[in-house]
Each structure stands twice: as structure tokens, then as C-alpha cells.
Amino acid sequence: xxxxxxxxxxxxxxxxxxxxxxxxxxxxxxxxxxxxxxxxxxxxxxxxxxxxxxxxxxxxxxxxxxxxxxxxxxxxxxxxxxxxxxxxxxxxxxxxxxxxxxxxxxxxxxxxxxxxxxxxxxxxxxxxxxxxxxxxxxxxxxxxxxxxxxxxxxxxxxxxxxxxxxxxxxxxxxxxxxxxxxxxxxxxxxxxxxxxxxxxxxxxxxxxxxxxxxxxxxxxxxxxxxxxxxxxxxxxxxxxxxxxxxxxxxxxxxxxxxxxxxxxxxxxxxxxxxxxxxxxxxxxxxxxxxxxxxxxxxxxxxxxxxxxxxxxxxxxxxxxxxxxxxxxxxxxxxxxxxxxxxxxxxxxxxxxxxxxxxxxxxxxxxxxxxxxxxxxxxxxxxxxxxxxxxxxxxxxxxxxxxxxxxxxxxxxxxxxxxxxxxxxxxxxxxxx
Length: 432
Description:
The chain is mainly β. It has helices at 2-7, 26-33, 63-74, 105-112; strands at residues 127-132, 138-143, 150-155, 160-164, 172-176, 183-188, 194-199, 203-208, 213-219, 224-229, 236-241, 246-250, 255-260, 267-272, 278-283, 295-299, 304-307, 319-322, 328-333, 337-342, 349-356, 367-369, 375-378, 384-389, 395-400, 406-411, 419-423, 427-431. It has 2 domains: 2-74, no CATH class; 105-431, YVTN repeat-like/Quinoprotein amine dehydrogenase (Methylamine Dehydrogenase, Chain H), CATH 2.130.10. The protein is 8% helix and 36% strand. The strands form 7 sheets. The chain has a 4-stranded antiparallel beta sheet, with no helix packed on it. The protein has a 4-stranded antiparallel beta sheet with strand order 2-3-4-5, with no helix packed on it. A 4-stranded antiparallel beta sheet has the order 6-7-8-9, with no helix packed on it. It starts with a helix and ends with a strand.
């Protein structure tokens, strides 16, 4: 009887609130026994679960409801990160938008054009924006083909940044820290909002940018320095690492399709030819005297080298790029020039043509062709961007971008007068 009195001693809302209840288990049983008599409903019905229902504005809240609400607010949430250490920490803070809804009308119109033929003769002249987020050098950048307002950058600070370059509000849209070491390279997938990255943690990672999740991890036994998607099959990509091993991966199965093994130094770059049947690799041969292995042309399906005596000079080449139309490719040389080669047998070096005046000085300086293939742009160890005429190899323009080395530079995939670059000081710049 005492238990029943204690359990229902505060049945009225007007009575003063007692201290903690010693036992409240019998209260619902008591009410269940009298539910068969069907008492008339209360003039002011009380919610069955006041902890989960928000109070209606202006309604009187009893002392019992106020106490229960206070207990619910004070109780620790079981799914909070600070209360559940087993939950993963957020790796994709959303700082801006990846949509093009807030872009200026003129930029949106230019991005929707299939090609930028009307602007092919224009050259980047002024700094449009400077993007700051990386705290250490930026190793690579990549424009999205399907969402051309987005730019991805890979930094030595273990982060991958996604930039909405022309956004009116917040230009940085996503920051990913899935790698636990420096990120060496990043490439957009030809399909959807996904990026592929690699780094010093001996892994390549496929990231869904829209959802902010890591969808696949490709683990290896070497530091991965470069990745490249197949031009005709976005499910395949090449990876080159510090042990000289090149692997062709299939995203659908997460397994290695082919492995290209030769007694090479660390792989500096890989590049598919136009038809996708061959690819070119560049390796570091500074540790040996066999300089003919610095650039090798491979057969993709047969896994055999077609030529290993393409470039016999005693310089390493940190970047290889194929011309978008002509059967040739260029190699950025540590001899402070860009050499040009034929991409069809017998893969000869053009001894009468080279792109000079910029510096490499041991930095991983990269170069890229324009959309129409008429210009070649290169970074430089002096912090400048050099634009060359592809046909004559003359310098068209020189743009001072950074005080430290300019590492990577790339033309926009639609607007040929827009160039993005990144520097050794961690800064990312867009010129137009």
C-alpha cells in the first residue's frame, strides 16, 4: 500500500513536486487494470511520451512534464561523437555548395556551352581568385569534366579540397582527410561526382564527393605517386609507385587486372595514348646508370614494353602529357626544358624542337596542353606560369603566380581562357 501511495502521491498537477521516485514500475500496471472501465477522457490530455513530443506553443506545461523534459535534455545522447568513440570522425565538412545554382549568369552560360571555340584565341591575363585552405605544398590539381565549376586539389597536409571556383559565397565546398599521409595525386572520374586520390599511405582511394564518403580503398605495398584513368573505360585506372611497379586496377572488382614489372626506379608519371592501347611511364633513374629506362612505352593488354630507349639523356621526367590530337607526347625534363616525342613507332625524340626558359630544379613541375592543342602551359621553379606555342615552341606569355615554385597548371576543360595552378606555398590560383 505504501508503494502505491508513493507512486501516485503526485497525481494532481497542482500539488507540489516531490523528490525522486523510489519505484514507478507499478504505475503503468495500475492504470492498465482500470483501463477496462473506460473513464471519460481528461479535459486536458497529456502526451504519452513527453520526452519525444515538442510542447505546443502557448500550452500549459505541468511540473511533471517540465521535469521529464529537463531529464531528457540533460541525458547524454548515445550517438554523439564525444560519447561514442567508436563512431568515425567527420572527414567531409561541408563548407560550401558543389552545385552550380549560385554561379553568375555569364559563367553558367559559358559552362553550358559544349565547346569554347569562340574563346580559343584568348589568353589568361589576370588573377581571378586565390584559394587558401592547404597549409602545405599542393602536389596536383584536376578540373571536373562533368561538373566544370569544380576543382580538386591534393596537398601535402593530407587533405583533398574541392573548390566551387565561381561560387558567390564559399568557394571551398568539401575537405576530405581520408589519407593519413601526404596526398600525391588526384583525378576526377569521367562519370559522376567522384575523385580518385593516392598518396604516401600506400593506397588509392575513390571518394564520392556528393555524399562525402569513401567508397573504395586500393591498398598496395608501395607509396603511390601517380594515378590515371583509362580514356575509354572509367572503371580502369593505372597506379605507379615508389617500388617501380605499375598496376592496372578495375574499380568494379577492386582487384589488379594487369601488372607491369620491370627493374625501374620510382614511377614519376603515367599517361595513356589517344587510342588507349598504349601508355607511357616515366621513372626515376637517378640511382643507376641505365638512363634508357627513364621513359617506357607499354602495351596495355600484353603487359610488355614496346620501347625503352625513348629518352637517353641523364635527366628524370616528372611529367608526361599526350597531345589531344597529334600522335606525339611531351615530357617535362629536369634539364629545365620540355622534350617532344612521337607516340607512334619508333617513338623518336624530336631533336630540333623543345620548350625552354622555365625551370624545374628538382620540383615535380607539371605541364598540360590546351583544349585545341595549340598551346602548352607549364609551371616553373621560379613561381611563374609559362605559355608556349605548340607549333613554334615560342613563349606566348609568362605570368608570375607565386614566390615559390608553381607545381601544377591546367587549362579549364570548357573555357580555354581559364587556367588553374597550385604552388609550393600551398596556394591555389585561377587566372582568366
